[in-house]
Amino acid sequence: MEQQKILIIGAGISGIAIAKHFIDRGHSITLIDSGINRSSIIAAGMINPIVFRRMTKSWRVDEFLPYLESFYTQFEKECNESFFIPITIRRMFSTEQERSLWIERQNTENFKDYIFPSTESDDKYDAAFNQFGSGRVKRSAYISTSIFLESTKKWISQNHTLITDTINYTNIDPAQSTYNGNVYDHIIFCEGVEVRNNPWFQNMPINPTQGETLTITSDSIIDNESLNRKCFILPIGNNEFKVGSTYVWDTYNSDITVAGRAEIEKNITYLTAAPYTVIDQNAGIRPTTLDRRPLIGTHPSFSNLHLFNGLGAKGYMLAPLLAKEMVEHILDGKLLDKEISISRLIKNK
Question: Which domains does the chain have, with CATH numbers?
Answer without folding.
Answer: 5-43+146-205+291-344 (3.50.50.60), 88-139 (no CATH), 207-288 (3.30.9.10)
